[in-house]
Amino acid sequence: MSPSAKTFIAGAIIAGGRSSRMGEDKRLLTFEDETFLERAAKLLHGVCSEVLYAAPDPPPLPIEARHAPDRFPGMGVLSGIHAALCEASTDRVLCIAVDTPLLTAEWLVLMDRRCRETGLPCIPRTGRRLHPLPGCYPASVRPYVEAALREGRSTAYRLLEAIGAVSIDEDEADRNGCSPAALTNVNTPEDWRALLEVSRRR
User: Fold this and answer.
1) What are the residue ranges of helices labelled H in 13-154?
2) What's the whole-number average pLDDT of the chain?
3) Phi, psi torsion values for 103, nearest 5 degrees
4) Helix or strand or coil: residue 30?
5) What does the domain layout of the chain look like in residue ranges?
6) Are the CB atoms for 181 and 124 separated by under 8 Å?
7) C-alpha count within 13 angstroms, C-beta hemisphere, residue 54
8) pLDDT tens-digit readout, 27-76
9) Are 195 and 103 contacting, i.e. CB atoms less than 8 angstroms apart?
10) Which of 27, 80, 141, 166 could form an SS bridge with 14, CB 3.0 to 4.6 Å?
């Protein structure tokens, strides 16, 4: 599948964080004339048949996405993934963070393909670090995610390792035209300044 072709898969913007390290709402930060939230929605609409917004409350500005409310608010990324899996009408969900404005369609297509091939969650890995977002999650993992949350276990990395998630390392990413730099999160004012510097150099 080419990055410009849509497939029958849901995409979800995971946006339940409080932006405490940034000091302001990351969803509303602007990069290349789009808010992070608008940029994430646009990216998913280019690949996915439906787009969800997973967070405790509806989005702070109008976007073309259906709200998927957190069932376990305050429990981090895993709660957002669970909300997306509950609301999606497809058998797979591409979940992305709202604060990765450099993420590309190539990454989404690669993760979706590996998820379809294996039937397992597919996530990037840089060095020894697993990235739960972005990731492609089959509907079959929903019971495991929900059980973990009900038991108070909200660490996505441990659950992904336990259920045998497939990871895409930097070599595989490079072979498929996916740059690890595209996974960069903007969490702090320093991250934000570095991103703007990247934009100025383009």
Assistant:
1) 36-45, 76-87, 105-118, 142-150
2) 91
3) -60, 145
4) strand
5) 7-201
6) no
7) 33
8) 999 988 999 999 999 999 999 999 999 999 999 999 999 999 999 988 99
9) no
10) 80
Contacts for 129-133 with beta carbons within 8 Å, 24 or more apart? Answer: 130/157, 130/160, 130/161, 130/165, 130/167, 131/183, 132/77, 132/78, 132/81, 132/95, 132/156, 132/157, 132/160, 133/14, 133/77, 133/95, 133/96, 133/97, 133/100
* Superfamily in which the 7-201 domain is placed by CATH: Spore Coat Polysaccharide Biosynthesis Protein SpsA; Chain A (3.90.550.10)
How far apart (Å, rounded) are the C-alpha atoms in residues 167 and 202?
30
Which residues of the chain fall short of a pLDDT of 70?
Answer: 1-6, 17-20, 199, 201-202
